[in-house]
Amino acid sequence: MTATRYDYDALERQYVQGSMSLRALCEMNGITTWSVVTYRAKQFDWARKRETFQETIKHKDLEIVAGKRAAKLEQLTDDIIDTIHAAIFRFVEGMADRVVKGEDGEFLIPGTPVMASDLVKLIDKVQLLKGQPTSREMKLGLSLHGELDDPTQLPRELLRELAHAAREAGAGTSTGGSSPLPRIEGARSVN
């Protein structure tokens, strides 16, 4: 048998795109002298080509999976925004007082009371969904350095004046962010 007798291009494609050994490839194609095919495979680096092909397939599979996940995430985000939108409209409808007619006459059903803290929380959530900061903290301070023999001997009035000056200059923690309403702390109370 001569080396030109076999269709090496077809054998290479089968090997590179498959997972069989060279011996199994030869048996599958009815080749009894598999050493000739092994020599050709080494000469043209079929093993590296198979590895490259499998990496390409793996990356394509990952891209397909990532594309499907991105599409699902986009749809989920759209569904969540639609749900929030519908919930806001229902919430707004529930804020209004309603008059209900019954057998005993008309009844007033009071709407849902909305507290300023509820609005602040809602605005913070909208800011978060828009990718904007919900709040920021800024800390300013005053630092004094020196050597004292006895720190308890500092005049109390001097310490009070330093603390007052630091507060006037904005020392401490203050919140300021992109929320148009002031931050209101504390739990909501329902009467």
Summarize the structure.
By secondary structure, the protein is mainly alpha-helical. 54% of the residues lie in helices and 9% in strands.
Spell out the blueprint of helices and strands.
Layout: H1 8-17, H2 22-28, H3 34-43, H4 46-95, E1 98-102, E2 105-109, H5 116-129, E3 137-140, H6 156-168, E4 172-175
Antiparallel strand pairs: 1-2, 3-4
Helix pairs in contact: 1-4, 2-3
Characterization of the model:
The protein has 191 residues and is mainly α. The chain has a domain of 42 residues. Helices cover 54% and strands 9% of the residues. The chain has 6 helices and 4 strands; from the N terminus they run H-H-H-H-E-E-H-E-H-E. The protein has a two-stranded antiparallel ribbon. Strands 3-4 form a two-stranded antiparallel sheet. A hairpin with a 2-residue loop joins strand 1 and strand 2. The protein is flat and about 100 Å long. About 3% of the residues have low confidence.
